[in-house]
Amino acid sequence: MMWKEKYKIGVEHIDKQHEELFRRVSEFTKVIRSEEDWDARVDKVKETMIFMKDYVIDHFNEEEIYQEQINYPDIETHREAHAKFREGINNYVKIFEEEGFTEEKIQEFGGKLMAWLIMHVGNMDQKIGEYVRSKGGKV
């Protein structure tokens, strides 16, 4: 899962954050699909969950503040998508705490992260860039 230039929305600090998200999720998926020992894989899951809980909150907050500043018309839909993702992360935290780490749940979590990141950055966030460009890049 690689960052692609086509994912850029044209807002430098958001694009850098997106690149970091892609890098981290890519690193994560490599480890969980590898033949590394179980403890190393579980450690990577824990590390990724901590990162996602913290970084995504910061990123979402910054992205939403930016949308407010530019009067982005679809901000509420975007906020809802962010809230669902945060809820999803928290659900996996709870699952792992209550049920432990299983191969099935680790792979499921990895798949959800990849799918969400591609769909959100590659589709929903692109609309922010389109809006900015429709305003001449100066909003």
Automatic annotation (TrEMBL):
The keyword Glycosyltransferase does not apply. Gene3D superfamilies: Hemerythrin-like. Residues 10-129 form the Hemerythrin-like domain. GO terms for molecular function: metal ion binding. Pfam families: Hemerythrin. InterPro entries: Hemerythrin, Hemerythrin-like, Hemerythrin-like_sf, Hemerythrin_metal-bd. Keywords: Iron, Metal-binding. It comes from the Bacteria. Signal peptide: none annotated. CDD domains: Hemerythrin. SUPFAM superfamilies: Hemerythrin-like. Belongs to the hemerythrin family. NCBIfam families: bact_hemeryth, hemeryth_dom. This is Hemerythrin. It comes from Acetivibrio saccincola. The lineage of its organism: Bacteria, Bacillati, Bacillota, Clostridia, Eubacteriales.
